[in-house]
Amino acid sequence: MSLIVGLTGGIGSGKTTVADYFASLGAAVVDTDVIAHELTVAQGAAMPEIEAAFGDSVLLADGGLDRAAMRRLVFSDPSEKCRLEAILHPMIRAASEARCQSAMAARAPYVMLVVPLLLESGAYRERVDRILVVDCDEDVQIARVTARSGLSIEEVRAIMATQASRPERLAAANDVVLNSAGTEQLIAQVVALHRHYLELTVL
Ligand code: ATP
Questions:
Q1: Is the CB of residue 133 less than 8 Å from the CB of residue 6?
Q2: Fewer CB near the terminus (10 Å): N or C of the chain?
Q3: Residues of each domain in the chain carrying CATH 3.40.50.300
Q4: Does the C-beta of 9 come closer than 6 Å to ligand 1?
Q5: Are 64 and 48 spatial neighbours (Cβ–Cβ below 8 Å)?
Q6: How many CB atoms lie under 10 A from the CB of residue 58?
Q7: How far does the centroid of ligand 1 lie from the alpha carbon of residue 67, in Å?
Q8: Class of the CATH domain delimited by 1-27+110-203
Q9: Predicted TM-score (pTM) above 0.85
Q10: Keywords for this entry (predicted)?
């Protein structure tokens, strides 16, 4: 049986780290953030539409998306965010679906589909067989994101306020990985879940 596990979690919870561990065990990973990035680099498939919609003030010299300029635009006018998402989201959905299909055609044991806003957007829920939540103490999330990005504590809290709450995520989860501590505990949980997913694929 084919199995698609939707992996989600709050900002800085450790989604990429967890997905990388699953990949090292043999899972096929399809990451919607990676796809979004690929679509918006120079020559990315979304760039002609983005340029037509927003003009060249949101382009870098190489033709890729100037993320800082786009952030400023979206901040000054939230409706611009909707216009950008109307271009990107259908492309991300189509590309992620195609990659899941080709991973299954290539007989991957199962697919880990990483969707940061899986619960918030709703668009992916019917495409996944199970939901795996990377759970994390909020203080740890804030510490990780501020250390990595240079965002302030208030900015990280503001982003977290737009995302599903920890109880909402846990209520929707079929499986949970707790990633508030070190990587050793994390690896043990990933290995146990990997075995469980392999068992499910042979049912
Ligand atoms: P985002 O929502 O911003 O895309 P994410 O959920 O994908 O983030 P990661 O990028 O995997 O999270 O992790 C965030 C940061 O925390 C990274 O710098 C990562 O190396 C670190 N990190 C993740 N898990 C652990 C851990 N168990 N121990 C120590 N550091 C960790």
A1: no
A2: C
A3: 1-27+110-203
A4: yes
A5: no
A6: 23
A7: 21
A8: alpha beta
A9: yes
A10: ATP-binding, Coenzyme A biosynthesis, Cytoplasm, Kinase, Nucleotide-binding, Transferase
